[in-house]
Amino acid sequence: MAELSLAIPKRWQPASVWLLYVVGLAPAAWTFYLGATDQLGADPVKTFELFLGIWTIRFLIATLAVSPARELLGWNYLRYRRALGLLTFYYALMHFAVYMVLDQAMDIHAVINDVLKRPFIMFGMAGLAMLIPLAVTSNNFSIRRLGKSWIWLHRLVTIIAACGALHFALSTKILDLEQYIYVGLIIALILYRSWRPIARSRKKGQGRTRNRAMASAS
Amino acid sequence: AAALSAVESKYKVDEKPTPIKDVTTYNNFYEFGLDKGDPAANSGDFKPLPWTIKVDGMVNKPGTFDLEALIKEFPIEERTYRMRCVEAWSMVIPWDGFPLASLLDKVEPLGSAKYVAFETVVRPDEMPGQKGFFQSLDWPYIEGLRLDEARHPLTLLAVGLYGETLPNQNGAPIRLVVPWKYGFKGIKSIVRMTLTDQQPKNTWQVTNPQEYGFYANVNPAVDHPRWSQASERRIGESGFFGASRHPTLPFNGYADEVASLYAGMDLKANF
């Protein structure tokens, strides 16, 4: 397969990954600054909470899009997938922290009630909980140590994506156009992932599993 | 917005009014878009004057009334009410308006009339949310009240806020304010009122009957399916860090005045 690598000299590539973390966290930092200096409108906490939620969805979509982009278009962004996945986790964690601390003012009782009673919050919490083991094992040591189980573990991302889409779609009074687009993209990416192993098993002996694990470790 | 001459009234909650900047930039008015900032941003082309309201149905004297004539006819009162949105946020707003009962008396409802149905204007050319292939709700927006609720002295037809005529984003030129009910009952830019013996099918109840009912009385004991209604975020008062949550009061604090309207009714079933 013809692979188009980014036009960055090899020695700058690790730096470009770090740059992605910085650029990726900038929207949260900037919006936090706007909120802290009273420039986030009439309902700053809700605005910040929803902002972090929508960016979680964006990074989730970007993470899921890395494989199809390579396989269908030949764009190789594999070295950024870990950063994108971790940014998804960081944004989900910040989204939860703002809900817990700024919105519900640490009222644990109210939060527990919300989680138990409301399906859309349940889906969100389940997604966040499943992101934790993925984030914890997002390092070369875990990939070597866990081997094949690492790949199985990280397939959880499909279920996480479904939880994220449900949480997002059920959270509003009506679905707006933006939600249709985001949820549609997630569904398409989930379908692609579930279709791919079947397509792949028809072509025998490609040693993809080993290649993939090594690519992720790079 | 033009200045209105309003007289003081006894209806004035003893709480700090929400800053006018927040009242006029944080709105739900889907005719102008779904985001809270959309109505302020997208309502510039809306022309609230001249304006007429048609009152028909089960009345002795149906008619089409010119808004400016109504404002001259009925004394405009200043009333500071709590406003509780179904989304668990709240404001305190100084409205200017006249009781809906005044207009109802003028048209003389028949004995058989049980409800009032209200209708918002449909003007896709001036209301971007009503235009295009993606539309959030079925237009026109419909609301309704039982006749005794409509006649209640607290029920107001507002034509202004903070002493000036209503900004477009707040429902210019005339809107309903029912302070003991969730904000979505306060239908905006009203063009028609119909007296009827059938309970009106209000827009949100039709759109999502699990979540929104006909009565929509503020009730901390009945949760919304997706969030608790036990407390509310007071807009403008809570900063970024000291999120100020107020406990939500039954009937939004107007229980003494209105609880008797619902005596013997199951408020969980009639949410």
Automatic annotation (TrEMBL), chain A:
Recorded GO CC terms: plasma membrane
Cofactor binding, per record: Binds 1 FMN per subunit.
Transmembrane domains' residue ranges: 18-36, 48-68, 80-100, 120-138, 150-171, 177-195
Domain of life: Bacteria
GO molecular function: electron transfer activity; FMN binding; heme binding; metal ion binding
Places the protein is found: Cell inner membrane; Membrane
Keywords, comma-separated and alphabetical: Cell inner membrane, Cell membrane, Electron transport, Flavoprotein, FMN, Heme, Iron, Membrane, Metal-binding, Transmembrane, Transmembrane helix, Transport
Cofactor: FMN; heme b
InterPro entries: Fe3_Rdtase_TM_dom, MsrQ-like
GO terms (BP aspect): protein repair
Domain (Ferric oxidoreductase): residue spans on this chain: 52-163
Membrane topology label: Multi-pass membrane protein
Coiled coil: none
Record's function text: Part of the MsrPQ system that repairs oxidized periplasmic proteins containing methionine sulfoxide residues (Met-O), using respiratory chain electrons. Thus protects these proteins from oxidative-stress damage caused by reactive species of oxygen and chlorine generated by the host defense mechanisms. MsrPQ is essential for the maintenance of envelope integrity under bleach stress, rescuing a wide series of structurally unrelated periplasmic proteins from methionine oxidation.
Family per record: Belongs to the MsrQ family.
Assembly and interaction partners: Heterodimer of a catalytic subunit (MsrP) and a heme-binding subunit (MsrQ).
Protein name, entry field: Protein-methionine-sulfoxide reductase heme-binding subunit MsrQ
Gene name of this polypeptide: msrQ
